[in-house]
Design a protein that fits this description.
mainly alpha
Length: about 425
């Protein structure tokens, strides 16, 4: 869980620093983050697919197969990363125009986005590496690397955004350079650990020959997870575009609310990752009863973690908003019951995320794919469009997020209770 906490804390810290630059840089960061988030989460199968497959082989004590899956995941990461980075750098201006960015927002955001997305091959290698270490039940290594890279990026953010510690003042572009440097350090650290550490020696006893047959299991899970995540991130991009057309202040307020959602969901995702890795290990060693018992415990832990965030948001709402922005327009956009709505949704988030992780570990990815396609594109996107069309504003978009999470809770809970996931192994 601590490793997952580093990313939302990094996002919170960076968003707070950029928020002090004004509404336009924060809005530009929101669009850039939505685009890069969609890219990286579509490729999140490199993490989740690797964790599930490697976890099954690890449970069966097939260490060579674990290393082979990791090598193929790295191959896909480098190839896919260069392809995505090239396209996004070339069409950055078109993407911001498609997102409805105002000229001032696009002027700030395009250089930032190009710098961030240039690190795509490095980021995807890190995602594949995280999947490997989680699959072999080593959560300490991702923890150390995550906090190292997050600390490095926050230091560079402070230095390059504001021109401190002898660096030039680059504003939002400085945040892009900080992200690029941190991703380079992270990918390098993971690969050095894998190829040098004694603990990974048993997993390195494989040949580097690549074949379609070896890639097929990863592609099967990857296809389901890519479509599932693409539906989620696509619906979030649509919501960001809707908020952008409501004005820079509303978009900035949406970015703050979204980061609060992500703070909760990413930290709770630590429980989901543990559930995924353990489910894969138990099922790989044919311990289905143990997997089911662990799944029931996860539900309680997820709800408790979500309730903790509810209480934190309710007690510190004003201070939380002040941390992100001093803009009166943005503060007004977050006033009323919006923070209350964000807070009350957190226990729901907690149960949904841990249940997702468990089902991924059980290889029940096809079911998750269709449930997300229906929820994201059939529920959240229409509500976001109606919010723009009829002036419901940020309240409507956040209500759409609540409707999506309610749908995911209902579908995931039904799947777990009827034990259909056991048939996927």
């Amino acid at each position: 869980m601590l490793a997952l906490a580093s990313q939302p804390l990094l996002n919170i810290g960076e968003t707070a620093m950029i928020g002090k630059l004004g509404a336009e840089p924060l809005a530009a960061r929101a669009i850039g983050a939505a685009l890069t988030g969609a890219i990286y989460w579509v490729f999140a199968f490199l993490t989740f697919g690797s964790t599930t497959l490697i976890g099954h082989h690890y449970g069966a004590r097939e260490f060579r197969a674990c290393g082979e899956i990791f090598s193929h995941a790295v191959f896909l990461a480098v190839l896919g990363g260069f392809f995505i980075a090239s396209l996004c750098i070339i069409f950055a201006a078109d993407l911001f125009r498609l997102m409805g960015a105002a000229p001032a927002v696009a002027r700030e955001g395009i250089p930032y986005f190009r710098l961030v997305v240039a690190s795509a091959p490095l980021t995807l290698v890190s995602l594949a590496s995280v999947g490997f270490f989680r699959g072999v039940q080593d959560t300490r290594t991702p923890l150390l690397v995550a906090f190292f890279t997050s600390g490095l990026q926050l230091t560079f953010d402070y230095s390059l955004i504001y021109g401190r510690l002898g660096a030039p003042r680059l504003g939002l572009a400085g945040a892009g350079l900080a992200a690029l440097a941190a991703q380079l350090a992270g990918a390098f650290a993971y690969l050095v650990i894998f190829f040098v550490s004694r603990k990974t020696a048993a997993f390195r006893a494989f040949s580097w020959r690549f074949s379609a047959a070896d890639l097929r299991p990863l592609f099967r899970i990857g296809q389901d997870l890519a479509i599932r995540t693409g539906a989620l991130r696509g619906s979030l991009i649509f919501a960001t575009a809707a908020a952008a057309r409501m004005g820079a202040a509303t978009l900035s307020a949406y970015e703050i609310a979204f980061q609060l959602f992500m703070l909760c969901s990413d930290i709770i995702d630590g429980l989901a990752v543990a559930g995924q890795a353990l489910a894969a290990k138990f099922l790989g060693s044919n311990q289905k009863a143990a997997a089911y018992r662990m799944g029931k415990i996860l539900i309680l832990l997820g709800a408790a973690a979500g309730l903790f965030f509810t209480l934190a948001f309710l007690s510190g709402g004003g201070a939380i908003v002040a941390l992100f922005t001093t803009s009166p327009e943005v503060m007004v956009s977050l006033s009323g019951g919006l923070l209350l709505l964000v807070a009350l949704l957190q226990p729901l988030n907690g149960v949904v995320f841990v249940r997702d992780g468990f089902l991924i570990g059980a290889r029940d990815t096809r079911y998750l794919m269709w449930a997300m396609v229906i929820g994201g594109l059939g529920i959240f996107v229409p509500i976001s469009w109606l919010s723009l069309r009829y002036g419901w504003g940020l309240t409507g978009i956040l209500t759409g997020i609540g409707a999506l999470m309610s749908w995911r809770l209902a579908t995931n809970f039904h799947r777990f209770v009827n034990e259909s996931w056991m048939k996927q192994v």
